[in-house]
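Whiteboard transcription, Tuesday session. T.W. wrote the C-alpha cells on the left side:
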C-alpha cells in the first residue's frame, strides 16, 4: 500500500505538504494540491482512518513519556513542558515507562486511540505504534523527542550538542594537567552515551591520551558511579580525574571518595553532566555541564504545538550548554 512518502516522491513535494494537502487543502497552493491529487489517484493512495482521526479530533492533552521518573534530571524538563502546555491551554499526561518497551508501547497506543493530541518522548526509543504513526503522517506526525536525540528516529528533537559538551569537559581536565582520566558512562546502546563518548575520544585523541582513558559503562545512576569508582580508587594507576556522564553518577564517585578518605579535588577531580539543582550545594560544589533542562521541555511542547498547527518545524533544535566550573576540579597533586 502506498504511503504519503510515495505520494510526496511522485509529486515532488515534502511529506508534510502531502499531509496538509489531504487534511487542510486550503493551506496548500492550488497547483501543488493538483499535483498531489494526481499522485494520489495514480498510486491509489487511501488515507489511514486512524491517522486521520489524529489530525481532526483534539483532546486538549499532551502525553509525555519519561524513562525514569525517579531521575531528578527529568523534573525541570517536565516543569518546562507543563508550563508551556498550560499556557497554550493543554493538559499534560505523564507516563513513566521505566525503560520498558512494553510500557512505552502501551502509552503510544493512547495516541492511536486519540486519548492525546501528541506525544513527547524523553527517551531514545520509539515504540511500534509511534513508529507507525510517524510513517503514516511523516513530518505531520504529532511525535517529538526531547533530550536523548537519535537521528534514526526521524522526528523533531530538542537537545544540546552532547559531543561538544563532553569534549569541553575533557578539555577542562586536560588543561588542568590531568592525563589519566576515568569516564563513567551510560548504557552502551544509549545515544547520549555514544555522543558524549564521541566527544571524549575526540578530546583524548587531540591530546594523544586515548590509551590513558579508563572507560566504564554505567546507567547514569548514583550506584553505577559508586561501583565504578570503587573498582579503581586506590589502585597503583588510579586516574587523577573522573568525568561522569551524569551528575547522579558523579554523586556516586564522590561517595566512594569519602568512604576511602580521599579528598576532592586534591586526590581526584570530578566533573558531572546536567547541572542538577543540588550540584552547586555539594561539598565541594560540582563542576558540571549545564543543560537548559526547563527550556528543553518548553521547546518540545512548542514543537509539538507547531506540528498540530500544520506549521513546518525543524528536525533538530540544538540548544546551548555551559561548563560550570566549581570546586570539584583542580590541578592534580604532584
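and on the right, the sequence the group agreed on:
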Amino acid at each position: 500500500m502506498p504511503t504519503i512518502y510515495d505520494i510526496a516522491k511522485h509529486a515532488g513535494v515534502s511529506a508534510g505538504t502531502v499531509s496538509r494537502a489531504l487534511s487542510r487543502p486550503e493551506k496548500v497552493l492550488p497547483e501543488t494540491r493538483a499535483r498531489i491529487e494526481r499522485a494520489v489517484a495514480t498510486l491509489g493512495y487511501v488515507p489511514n482512518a486512524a491517522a486521520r482521526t489524529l489530525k481532526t479530533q483534539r483532546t486538549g492533552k499532551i502525553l509525555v513519556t519519561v524513562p525514569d521518573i525517579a531521575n531528578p534530571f527529568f523534573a525541570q524538563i517536565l516543569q518546562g513542558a507543563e508550563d508551556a502546555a498550560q499556557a497554550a491551554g493543554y493538559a499534560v499526561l505523564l507516563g513513566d515507562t521505566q525503560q520498558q518497551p512494553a510500557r512505552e508501547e502501551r502509552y503510544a497506543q493512547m495516541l492511536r486511540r486519540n486519548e492525546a493530541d501528541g506525544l513527547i518522548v524523553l527517551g531514545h526509543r520509539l515504540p511500534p505504534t509511534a513508529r507507525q504513526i510517524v510513517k503514516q503522517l511523516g513530518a505531520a506526525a504529532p511525535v517529538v523527542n526531547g533530550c536523548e536525540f537519535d537521528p534514526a528516529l526521524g522526528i523533531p528533537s530538542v537537545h544540546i550538542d552532547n559531543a561538544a559538551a563532553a569534549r569541553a569537559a575533557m578539555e577542562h581536565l586536560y588543561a588542568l594537567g590531568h592525563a589519566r582520566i576515568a569516564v563513567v558512562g551510560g548504557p552502551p546502546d544509549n545515544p547520549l552515551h555514544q555522543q558524549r563518548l564521541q566527544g571524549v575520544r575526540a578530546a583524548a585523541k587531540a591530546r594523544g591520551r586515548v590509551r590513558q582513558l579508563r572507560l566504564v559503562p554505567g546507567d547514569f545512576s548514583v550506584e553505577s558511579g559508586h561501583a565504578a569508582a570503587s573498582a579503581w580508587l586506590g589502585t597503583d594507576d588510579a586516574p587523577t580525574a573522573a568525568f561522569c556522564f551524569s551528575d547522579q553518577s558523579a554523586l556516586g564517585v564522590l561517595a566512594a571518595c569519602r568512604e576511602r578518605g580521599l579528598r576532592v579535588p586534591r586526590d581526584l577531580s570530578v566533573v558531572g553532566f546536567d547541572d542538577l539543582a543540588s550540584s552547586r550545594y555539594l561539598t565541594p560544589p560540582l563542576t558540571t555541564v549545564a543543560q537548559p533542562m526547563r527550556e528543553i521541555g518548553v521547546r518540545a511542547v512548542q514543537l509539538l504545538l507547531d506540528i498540530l498547527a500544520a506549521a513546518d518545524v525543524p528536525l533538530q533544535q540544538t540548544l546551548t550548554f555551559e561548563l560550570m566550573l566549581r570546586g570539584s576540579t583542580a590541578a592534580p597533586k604532584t
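Someone added at the bottom: Residues 151 and 157 are 9 Å apart (CA to CA).
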